[in-house]
Q: What sequence folds into this?
């Protein structure tokens, strides 16, 4: 079995990561409108960088479905379809619920200890209202549950859907409606079930947790669009 560290620090973001994050936030908030073309040169000048990290950021954004790039036409912002987004969240909920169920059966003692430790680490940022640190730990907790399923297909599917939903899991989404505290409470239920070997509770708690995250993200998106119009 591969060695697993007990908690890890998130990697420092690159310039392209920061550009991707800023553009994604602006697209979701409606500051950059659907159909708008993203100009490499203008964005490079805005961030005072070369075009290379801008191209890398565009590739990341295309992977999340926020923009589309076509040869000789550049990158264009896609009109976000909330029904499609809800479909992706629904699929993720079922896949992650199954990961949680299998984790309750298959996690090694070291993996269980790591999951428990990550959850404990999330208390401090929750108490301090540090959405950014909590967001990083939230991702680590979910990945630990994906890994704990011991199923490579489920891990790959989870990773793909997490990538597509990455813009809707940023720290800003934990700011509304006390979502961060509620998220940690939901993690309590999921992790307690996994550590206790309660497969059905692990499944239902994780599915409910992802559904609540979906509702939070979709509500934020609708409110942001309404405010921007």
A:
């Amino acid at each position: 079995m591969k060695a697993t560290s007990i908690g890890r620090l998130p990697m420092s973001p690159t310039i392209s990561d920061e550009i991707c994050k800023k553009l994604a936030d602006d697209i979701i908030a409606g500051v950059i409108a659907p159909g708008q073309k993203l100009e490499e040169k203008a964005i490079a000048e805005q961030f005072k960088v070369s075009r290379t990290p801008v191209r890398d950021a565009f590739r990341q954004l295309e992977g999340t479905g926020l923009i589309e790039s076509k040869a000789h036409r550049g990158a264009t912002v896609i009109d976000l379809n909330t029904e499609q987004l809800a479909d992706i969240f629904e699929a993720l909920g079922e896949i992650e619920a199954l990961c949680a169920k299998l984790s309750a059966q298959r996690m090694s003692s070291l993996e269980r200890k790591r999951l428990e430790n990550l959850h404990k680490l999330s208390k401090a940022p929750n108490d301090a209202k540090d959405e950014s640190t909590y967001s990083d730990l939230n991702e680590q907790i979910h990945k630990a549950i994906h890994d704990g399923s011991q199923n490579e297909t489920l891990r790959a599917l989870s990773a793909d859907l997490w990538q597509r939903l990455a813009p809707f899991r940023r720290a800003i989404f934990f700011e509304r409606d006390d979502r961060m505290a509620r998220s940690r409470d939901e993690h309590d239920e999921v992790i307690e079930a996994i550590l206790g070997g309660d497969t059905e509770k692990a499944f239902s708690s994780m599915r409910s947790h992802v559904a609540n995250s979906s509702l939070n993200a979709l509500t934020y998106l609708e409110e942001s669009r309404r405010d921007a119009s």
In short: Residues 1-11 have pLDDT under 50 and may be disordered. The beta strands are 37-38, 67-70, 74-77. The two ends are 53 Å apart (CA to CA). The chain has ten helices and three strands.
